[in-house]
Amino acid sequence: MKCPFCGYLESKVVDSRPAEEGGSIRRRRECLKCAKRFTTYETIESLPLLVVKKDGTRQSFDRSKLLNSITRACDKRSVTLQQMEELVTDIEQQILNSLDREIPTSKLGDLVMERLRGVDEVAYVRFASVYRQFKDVSTFLTEVDKLLNARET
Predict the structure, then answer these.
(1) For residue 132, pLDDT beyond 90
(2) 39, 66, 93, 152: most buried, per Cβ within 10 A?
(3) pTM here?
């Protein structure tokens, strides 16, 4: 670490402790040349997560957008905000664990539908109707039939 006072490249760590609720480490260092002390912070380098749209454009993953779409699907249902936030956290964690830095919207939508099916079937159908862009009632009924068949098995 380069000393901010004299520019010397060698220093020793005098003290280390967690900072920002464990999000980083605060280190007190001492320059081996001028003996002055300074503070550095070590944080995890986070790579951006990108969502690939149908037209090929990319935009940053936005947790609040995902939560808003799930909230709309769960409107006037008995799904709590905590359940919705946990659902978003689970989805986000699964994406991050996959080590892919890009996720197509189709895969993201499938992950949401998979989770919503277990939480609330009406919310699942609402989300599916927007996500899959149901063109008519027969497409909607086909999706409901799939849901009913899955429940019976």
Answers:
(1) no
(2) 66
(3) 0.63
